[in-house]
UniProtKB/TrEMBL annotation:
Database matches in InterPro entries: Ferrochelatase (IPR001015), Ferrochelatase_AS (IPR019772), Ferrochelatase_C (IPR033644), Ferrochelatase_N (IPR033659)
Biological process per Gene Ontology, one example term: heme biosynthetic process
Enzyme class, spelled out: lyase
SUPFAM superfamilies reported in the protein's UniProt record: Chelatase
PROSITE patterns in the record: FERROCHELATASE
Pathways per UniProt: Porphyrin-containing compound metabolism; protoheme biosynthesis
Keyword Nucleotidyltransferase: no
Annotated HAMAP family: Ferrochelatase
Gene name tied to this protein: cpfC
Name of the protein in its database record: Coproporphyrin III ferrochelatase
Length: 312
């Protein structure tokens, strides 16, 4: 009996601490080795405390997605044995650790995919570079999924969520609800680099809006870093302010298409911070459900990974 071909899959994501006592090390890594000030550290701890109460379910979301992807790949393609590994940008196991583990386990071929549908040289590009450098160093043959912003199953999953969200505004016509698609802001300098990130996000937004049948939508950015350089805007909080001042809508549905699971940018930046702003402005704000382990999203990941296997 011939042995099955084995392919490693490095599933990359931003990472999150696993407990409150890991927050300082995590934040220091994000800041390239510079520890946060006591005030910055306290602010971040307060945010985590507000969403998780000291208990961290956030890492579990990623663990569950990786397990679901491995199961899906192996059930859809039984002729190959897929083994999934994690590689995190700012927490353990780091991207390099994941690549190293694949090499230690004797894998010769691997595919990298990021839990983010939209490509930017500053986000997904950075993950790919780190993984490729390590793979090259270890002699591991590795291909990478760059983006999957228009995969039909992804669009379907997000369309379902927008329709569900619109249904929460009882007695309100769907075209009277302002839908705001959001993603993580990045420094404005990506615009000078002709980075595809903003355009890919608009492609996803337009595809969902067309399927839902809405025209009352816009794009907003969220979760910009405090780095002293300009970041892409308008920020979601400013968008809510403008909508109120210009009397554009009283009902708002936020669909964070740039994020694929529940974590700080969803549970704090939207569910607490944006929600608080909306209440102060007298807006009714709802948010679409996160993708997490939705079978349609897992199918998207499985498809884009397998497409590279077929390409060879």
């Amino acid at each position: 009996m011939t042995q099955k071909k084995r392919i490693g899959v490095l599933v990359m994501s931003y990472g999150t601490p696993e407990s409150m006592d890991q927050i300082e090390a995590y934040y220091t890594h994000i800041r390239r080795g510079h520890p946060p000030t006591p005030q910055q550290l306290q602010d971040l701890k307060d945010r985590y405390e507000a969403i998780v109460g000291g208990f961290f379910p956030l890492r579990e979301n990623t663990n569950n997605q990786v397990k679901a992807l491995e199961d899906k790949l192996n059930s859809a393609h039984p002729e190959i044995e897929f083994v999934c590994y994690q590689g995190l940008k700012h927490a353990s196991p780091l991207i390099e650790d994941g690549v190293e583990q694949m090499a230690k386990d004797g894998l010769k071929e691997a595919i990298g995919v990021v839990l983010a549908p939209h490509y930017s040289v500053m986000s997904v590009g950075g993950y790919i570079k780190r993984a490729k450098d390590k793979a090259d160093e270890l002699g591991l043959s590795m291909q990478f999924v760059r983006s999957y912003q228009l995969h039909p199953q992804l669009i379907e999953a997000l369309t379902i969520r927008v329709n569900e969200g619109l249904a929460r505004f009882e007695g309100v016509d769907k075209n009277d609800v302002r839908v705001i698609f959001t993603a993580h802001s990045l420094p404005e300098k990506i615009l000078e680099m002709n980075d595809p990130y903003p355009e890919q996000l608009l492609e996803t937004s337009k595809a969902i809006a067309a399927k839902v049948g809405i025209t009352n939508w816009q794009f907003g950015w969220q979760s910009a870093g405090q780095t002293g350089v300009p970041w892409l805007g308008p920020d979601i909080l400013d968008v809510l302010q403008t909508i109120t001042e210009e009397k554009q809508a009283e009902n708002v549905l936020v669909c964070p298409i740039g994020f694929v699971s529940d974590h700080l940018e969803i549970l704090y930046d939207l569910d607490i911070e944006a929600q608080k702003t909306a209440k102060q402005l007298g807006l009714h704000l709802e948010r679409t459900r996160s993708l997490n382990t939705d079978p349609l999203y897992i199918e998207t990941l499985s498809d884009v990974v397998y497409a590279l296997v077929e390409k060879g």
